[in-house]
Design brief:
The chain has about 325 residues and is α/β, with parallel strands linked by helices. Helices cover about 35% and strands about 20% of the residues. It has one domain: 3-Layer(aba) Sandwich (Rossmann fold). Bound molecules: adenosine-5'-diphosphate and magnesium ion.
C-alpha cells in the first residue's frame, strides 16, 4: 500500500480575536483537530455550513497558513517546511471567486503562464505553447489568450484560474467552493471540466463545498464538518444512503427538498449555527439535534467507525445507521 497523497494529521487552528480595541482577546478555534487522508487519484469532498472551518483547513493544506497544532503532509513531506516554489509544484488552489483571484491588468496568456515564468521554465516560445495547450484543455481557444479578465464571463474566468492552477501539473488541487460564485447554468460545466481534467491529468482533489449535492457529484470520499471537526466520513454512497450523523441527515434533507436550500441544513433544525467563540459543551451539535439526551451535552463523541470505513462522531451513530 502506498501512502496517501495528502495526510492531514490532528490539525488545530486557533485565532486570537478581539471585538474592539479595548475588548479582551479571545480564542476562536476554527479547526479543532481534523485528521483526513486523500489517496492518490481520488477526490475528497469536504462539506459543511459556512463558518465550520473548511477554508481555514484549505489554506493550511495549501501552506498559506500554519496549523496551531498538528501537520499536513503531501507526498509524505510536511507542507509547512516546503519552500514556496516546491510547494507550488505539489499543490495548487482553485478558489471560489475568479473575479478577485485574477489580476485585471494582465492578459489571459500572462496569467496562465505566470507560474512557468516564476519557475524559470522554458523559452518564451515554449511557454506560449504550453499556455496554448492549457487553454485548449480548459475549453478556451487561442482567441482568449490576448483577452483581459474583464472581457470574460464568470465561467471563462474560472477556466483561466483552473488553467493557471494546472500549468505546473501539481499532484493535488484544492478546490474551495469552485462553483459557488457562478451562475447555476455554468456550475455544472465547471464541475464537469474539473472531473474531466482530473481523469486526464491524473490529479487528486480536495474538493470543498457547503453543498452536499455538489460534493456527492464529484467525491470518491466525503467528510462532513461541523464547528471545526469532522463529524462523519465515508464513501459517498454509504454516507448518503445510510447517514450515521444527525447533522448529515439534516444536510441531506435540505438537498432533497423540492426547493433545496442550496445544500444548507433545513430551517426546521433547532437553533442556528453556534458561535465558534462559545462552542457548545459535549457534542457541538447537541443544541440543534433531534436525538440529543443529557449525555450529549456532557460528553463529546469520538469519530468512531459506524461500519468499517464509515465513521461518525455521534453517541447514537450505530442506532441511526439501522
Ligand atoms: N484570520 C482569521 N482570524 C480570525 N478568525 C478567523 C480567521 N479566519 C477564519 N476565522 C474564523 O474561523 C471560522 C471558520 O472560518 P472558515 O474556515 O472561513 O469557514 P468556512 O470556509 O467553512 O466558511 C469562522 O468562525 C471564521 O470567522
Ligand atoms: Mg470558506
Amino acid at each position: 500500500m502506498t501512502a496517501p497523497l495528502l495526510q492531514i494529521r490532528d490539525v488545530v487552528r486557533r485565532f486570537g480575536v478581539r471585538r474592539g480595541v479595548f475588548a479582551p482577546r479571545r480564542t476562536l478555534t476554527a479547526v479543532a483537530g481534523v485528521s483526513l487522508d486523500l489517496p492518490r487519484g481520488e477526490v475528497l469532498g469536504l462539506v459543511g455550513e459556512s463558518g465550520c472551518g473548511k477554508s481555514t483547513l484549505a489554506r493550511i493544506v495549501l501552506g498559506l497558513d500554519k496549523p496551531t497544532e498538528g501537520e499536513v503532509l503531501i507526498d509524505g513531506r510536511p507542507v509547512a517546511s516546503l519552500h514556496r516554489l516546491e510547494r507550488s509544484r505539489l499543490v495548487q488552489p482553485v478558489f471560489q471567486d475568479p473575479y478577485s483571484s485574477l489580476n485585471p491588468r494582465r492578459s489571459v496568456e500572462a496569467i496562465i503562464g505566470q507560474p512557468l515564468l516564476v519557475h524559470g521554465e522554458g523559452t518564451p516560445a515554449e511557454r506560449r505553447d504550453r499556455v496554448a495547450e492549457m487553454l485548449g484543455l480548459v475549453g478556451l481557444g487561442p482567441r482568449h489568450a490576448a483577452a483581459y479578465p474583464s472581457q470574460l464571463s464568470g465561467g471563462q474566468r474560472q477556466r483561466v484560474a483552473i488553467a493557471r492552477a494546472l500549468i505546473l501539473r501539481p499532484a493535488l488541487v484544492v478546490c474551495d467552493e469552485p462553483t459557488s460564485a457562478l451562475d447555476v447554468s455554468v456550475q455544472a460545466q465547471i464541475l464537469n471540466l474539473l472531473m474531466e481534467l482530473r481523469a486526464r491529468l491524473g490529479l487528486s482533489y480536495l474538493f470543498i463545498s457547503h453543498n452536499l449535492a455538489v460534493v456527492q457529484l464529484v467525491a470518491s470520499r466525503v467528510a462532513v464538518m461541523y464547528l471545526g471537526r469532522v463529524v462523519e466520513e465515508g464513501d459517498p454512497e454509504t454516507v448518503l444512503r445510510t447517514p450515521a450523523h444527525p447533522y448529515t441527515r439534516a444536510l441531506l434533507a435540505s438537498v432533497l427538498q423540492p426547493r433545496p436550500g442550496r445544500g444548507l441544513p433545513d430551517p426546521q433544525l433547532a437553533g442556528s449555527f453556534p458561535n465558534p467563540l462559545e462552542p457548545p459543551s459535549g457534542c457541538a451539535f447537541h443544541p440543534r439535534c433531534p436525538l440529543a439526551v443529557p449525555r450529549c451535552a456532557a460528553e463529546r463523541p469520538g469519530l468512531d467507525p459506524a461500519t468499517g470505513e464509515h465513521r461518525a462522531a455521534c453517541h447514537f451513530a450505530a442506532l441511526a445507521e439501522t
